[in-house]
Design brief:
single chain; 319 residues; alpha/beta; 4-stranded antiparallel sheet; 12 helices; 10 strands; 49% helix
């Protein structure tokens, strides 16, 4: 299954260079060991290297970094370390910190792969991560266009692909693989903190769902493909919308397309429209489609939304 995903979804081929993100946890160690076994085989002959990102957010984080370095040395895998020590991290909410940490990791992957001349970065996200992501988006009322989970592969930069080849595998399968190798791993204690939504879902919800549907990893892959196609279609239609948008046209538009077009316009003006609450986007649509023709003004941090008699305007706040 790993080889199929590497070839068919990620596009990795013989002789390619691959950077493996390794935190020291069971999933990334399993990916590292599997890639170490696969890399020298005929028809692959991959050049693999590993990267560990040290966020300095836990007391045990430095031990994780040393564990990864020693493991890579024992396997003869070139490894790199990136330290991210952002003062602002201590002032962030758990939600914002999770998002920012992800952005820091992606930046580290992009820079390290470019410096080493590697075309692919792979991470150990698995079926459990996929299910948690879909459930979290559902619980937060994400738009239909955002209901796809983790994409199997996507561009990370010029000539660089980020891939997740373990999305069809369960976390328990990866741990069983490591036990068969007598390979230890590190545990991140924050994964047991059920005050965090993802950890709570992992502890209380997703195990029962996997028991109810033993083929759930494959079903998730099918769902993700369909949701991605729907999202692409909506984004394509929304991208064709131009502002000022005639109010009469707004009334006739599909609501999902209208709200996504507004979100994209806000994002273009630096407003991070993808993180605006669905209630705000619905209120803008309600104002735009009001048959009374009443005007509205909604002031945001960087933008102003003006719903006038004949058109909807979304402009920079300084305009």
């Amino acid at each position: 299954m790993l080889t199929e995903s590497l070839r068919r979804e990620a596009g990795i081929d013989e002789g390619d260079g691959v950077l493996i993100a390794c935190s020291g946890g069971a999933d990334s160690v399993a990916l590292l060991r599997a890639m170490h076994a696969l890399a020298p085989k005929r028809r692959w002959r991959l050049r693999i290297e590993a990267l560990h990102v040290q966020h300095h957010l836990r007391e045990s984080a430095e031990r994780d970094a040393w564990f990864v370095a020693e493991l890579c040395d024992s396997l003869g895998i070139a490894h790199h370390r990136v330290d991210v020590n952002e003062p602002e991290a201590q002032r962030m909410t758990p939600r914002n910190l999770e998002l920012r940490a992800r952005e820091w990791r992606l930046s580290a992957y992009r820079d390290a792969a470019a410096q080493r001349g590697l075309r692919f970065v792979i991470t150990a996200h698995h079926a459990g991560d996929q299910l948690e992501t879909v459930l979290m988006r559902l619980m937060r009322g994400a738009a239909v266009s955002a209901m796809a989970g983790i994409t199997p592969a996507r561009p990370l930069g010029p000539g660089l692909t980020l891939a997740h080849p373990l999305l069809r595998l369960h976390h328990d399968t990866l741990r069983d693989y490591l036990r068969g190798l007598h390979q230890p791993w590190r545990e991140d204690e924050t994964n047991a903190d059920t005050t965090r939504l993802r950890a709570a879902l992992r502890e209380r919800v997703t195990p029962d769902l996997f028991r109810l549907a033993t083929d759930l990893p494959e079903r998730l892959a099918t769902w993700n493909a369909h949701a991605s196609d729907v999202g692409d279609l909506l984004r394509e239609r929304a991208s064709a919308v131009r502002f000022p948008l005639p109010r009469e046209l707004a009334r006739s538009m599909n609501p999902a397309v209208f709200q996504l077009a507004v979100s994209q316009r806000l994002a273009d003006l630096g407003e991070r429209g993808d993180r605006k609450p669905a209630s705000l986007l619905r209120s803008i649509r309600c104002a735009a489609t009001d048959l009374s023709g009443k005007t509205r003004r909604i002031e945001l941090k960087r933008c102003v939304v003006r719903v006038e008699r004949d058109a909807i305007h979304i402009e920079p706040a300084t305009a």
